[in-house]
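Retry 2 of 3 after timeout on previous attempt. Resubmitting C-alpha cells to design endpoint.
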C-alpha cells in the first residue's frame, strides 16, 4: 500500500479548522459553568455507594494508564474499518497500523465518525436504563460511561494510526478525556499539555519525562467530577421516572459525543501536523 499524503494547502486548511474548533471549546457558556455549582452541595448528600463508585472510577483510570486494564480494545476490527474506507474492500494481508498511517485523511475521518455514532447509540441505551432504574442502577452509571469513553478514545487513536497499547498513548487518551469534561481554564491547560506531549514526539511526555506526565494526570479528579455532575442531574430527575429515562439517555449520549469529538479532533490534529512535517516543500 503506497502512502497517501494530501497536499500542504489542504492539510493547513484542515489544521486551521481544528484550531477554530479548539478556540470554540474554550468559550464555555456562563450558565453551563453556573449549572455545576449545585453539585458541590449535592456531593455532601450523595450516598456512600456513589462515592465508592467514584473512587473505583479513579482507580480504574490509573490502572488504564499503567496497564490498559480491562479497557484495551482489539485493533483488528478498527483496522478493517479503515481499510474498507480507504481501499473500498477488506482483506489486505497484514494490514497494520502503518497502513492506517498512510491512509487518506478522509478515510480516517469516516471511520471515526461511524464509530462515534455507534458508541453514542450504546451510551443512549445505557443512559435510559440507568436514568429509569433508580439509585442502584444510577450508581453503576459512572464506571460504565467511563468505560465507554475510554474505549471510544482508543478507537479514535487507532483510526488515526496511533497505538493505545503504548503507555504514552494511554496518557494522551486520558488527557483527551480530561479535555472533554473541563471548563474554559481546564481546556486551555489540557491543550497546552497535549501540544507539549505531541511536540515531544508521537505524543510522548515532554520535558520532565514520565514523572511530569503523571503529575499532569492529577486532573483525573476533574474528569470524575464531570461524571459525578451528570449523575447528580439524573439523581434529581429519577424522581419522575420517564423524565429520568429521557434525561439519562440524552446526557449519556451527549457525553459520548463530546468525548468522541475531542478524541477525533485532537488525534486528527496530530496526524495532520505529522504529515505537514513530513511533506516536501511546495507540495
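Retry 2 succeeded. Sequence:
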Amino acid at each position: 500500500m503506497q502512502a497517501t499524503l494530501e497536499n500542504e494547502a489542504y492539510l493547513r486548511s484542515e489544521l486551521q479548522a481544528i484550531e477554530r474548533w479548539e478556540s470554540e471549546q474554550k468559550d464555555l457558556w456562563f450558565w453551563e459553568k453556573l449549572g455545576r455549582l449545585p453539585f458541590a452541595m449535592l456531593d455532601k448528600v450523595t450516598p456512600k455507594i456513589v462515592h465508592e463508585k467514584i473512587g473505583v472510577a479513579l482507580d480504574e483510570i490509573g490502572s488504564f494508564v499503567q496497564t490498559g486494564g480491562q479497557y484495551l480494545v482489539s485493533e483488528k476490527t478498527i483496522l478493517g474499518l479503515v481499510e474498507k474506507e480507504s481501499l473500498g474492500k477488506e482483506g489486505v494481508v497484514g494490514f497494520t497500523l502503518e497502513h492506517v498511517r498512510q491512509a487518506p485523511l478522509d478515510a480516517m475521518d469516516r471511520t471515526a465518525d461511524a464509530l462515534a455514532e455507534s458508541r453514542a447509540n450504546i451510551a443512549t441505551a445505557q443512559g435510559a436504563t440507568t436514568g429509569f432504574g433508580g439509585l442502584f442502577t444510577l450508581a453503576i452509571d459512572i464506571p460504565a460511561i467511563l468505560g465507554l469513553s475510554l474505549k471510544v478514545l482508543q478507537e479514535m487513536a487507532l483510526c488515526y494510526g496511533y497505538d493505545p497499547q503504548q503507555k504514552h498513548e494511554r496518557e494522551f487518551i486520558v488527557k483527551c478525556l480530561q479535555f472533554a469534561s473541563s471548563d474554559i481554564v481546564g481546556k486551555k491547560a489540557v491543550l497546552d499539555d497535549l501540544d507539549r506531549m505531541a511536540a515531544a514526539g508521537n505524543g510522548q511526555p515532554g520535558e520532565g519525562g514520565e514523572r511530569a506526565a503523571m503529575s499532569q494526570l492529577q486532573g483525573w479528579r476533574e474528569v470524575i467530577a464531570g461524571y459525578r455532575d451528570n449523575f447528580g442531574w439524573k439523581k434529581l430527575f429519577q424522581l419522575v421516572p420517564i423524565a429520568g429515562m429521557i434525561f439519562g439517555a440524552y446526557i449519556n449520549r451527549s457525553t459520548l459525543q463530546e468525548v468522541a469529538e475531542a478524541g477525533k479532533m485532537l488525534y486528527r490534529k496530530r496526524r495532520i501536523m505529522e504529515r505537514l512535517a513530513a511533506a516536501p516543500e511546495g507540495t
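Attempt log closed. Confidence is low (pLDDT under 50) at residues 29-42, 205-217.
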